[in-house]
Amino acid sequence: MVLFFLLVYFVIITAVIEIFVVLFRCTGLKVEISRFQVISMMTGTGFTTGESELILGHPIRRKLAIFLILFGAFSLAVIISSISQFLSEGLRTKEILTVAIAVMLVFVVLRMSRMQRLLSTLFNRQMKQNVELVDLPVRDVFLTAKKDALVSLPIYKESMLHQKTLDIAIEDHERLDFVVLFIQRGNVRIRKSIYTTTLHEGDQLLLFGARDVLRSVFEHDWHIMKKRQMDDVDVGLQK
Fold first, then answer.
1. pTM of the full predicted structure?
2. Residue 23 pLDDT exceeds 70
3. Mean pLDDT taken over the chain
4. With the CA atoms of 62, 67, 72 and 77 taken in that order, what torsion angle do they form, in degrees rounded to the nearest 10?
5. What confidence score (pLDDT) does residue 89 get?
6. From the CB of residue 23, how many other CB atoms can be counted at a distance below 10 Å?
7. For labelling alongside 201, which of 4, 120, 183, 212 has CA 20 to 30 A away?
8. pLDDT score, position 221
């Protein structure tokens, strides 16, 4: 009876896993990452730090994760209790030998050279299906070194870049350790002729490069941005 209950409960757990894989997939997460993260949260393992940021950085995924963590803790208690009850009833020698023989057969099959070559081919084929960059946290894509920085720099009216092009405002920018990824202008992203495009108030530059270089080259705009942010905080506190 205990074994039947465990079997049914494992079916329930499997169904819950697949349900949440679908839910995470609906939030834009890839199926492979979704399934791995769902199992990780249910079992309480925490070694998937990089991919877990995809869950933490999304409000809907965080709420789904809370339920999974609680359900996983409850399920672990139920499974341990059921297994303890099953073991307390005692295992027959025949059952133990059956399990031992099955494990040894799996080990012998895996030791065969032909099987290892087959698995190696299969695993290498699966490895070609790499995770797309869109599913990786920004830190894993861009910020691979401590000196790297990714900055969204708004253009204000008092900015030194206002009504200028980057070619004119920044001399020898090709030799400096930074690049402008794009210009955000309202709902439009400008990716072509970035350095010859005249910048207007309200534009935002997405910059990537060495933090020290960015702060040095865009020092004036950097201070304006920080000052505006502090002013916004003060206004919010006064309200």
1. 0.43
2. yes
3. 77
4. 140
5. 60
6. 17
7. 212
8. 83
Residue 100 pLDDT > 50: yes
* DSSP-assigned letters across all residues of the chain: -HHHHHHHHHHHHHHHHHHHHHHHHHTT--HHHHHHHHHHHHHT----HHHHHHHHT-HHHHHHHHHHHHHHHHHHHHHHHHHHHHHHT---HHHHHHHHHHHHHHHHHHHSHHHHHHHHHHHHHHHTSPPPGGGS-HHHHT--STTEEEEEEE--TTSTTTT--HHHHSTTGGGSSEEEEEEEETTEEE-SSGGGSPP-TT-EEEEEEEHHHHHHHTHHHHHHHHHHHHHHHHHHHH-
> Is-contact 83 3, C-beta < 8 A?
no
Q: Please name the residue that has the structure tokens 């070194």.
A: 145
pLDDT in tens, 26-46: 877 777 778 888 888 888 776
pLDDT top residue among 133 and 51? 51
Strand-pairing partners, residue 209, are 149, 178
Dist. CA 39–CA 33, nearest whole Å: 10
Sheet of strand 188-190, all strands in order from the earlier edge strand to the far edge: 148-154, 204-210, 178-185, 188-190
Q: Phi, psi at residue 57, to the nearest 5°?
A: -85, 5
C-alpha 135/C-alpha 38 separation (Å) is 16
The CA angle 92-98-102, to the nearest 5 degrees, is 155
Residue 65 neighbours by CB under 8 Å, 6+ apart: 41, 55
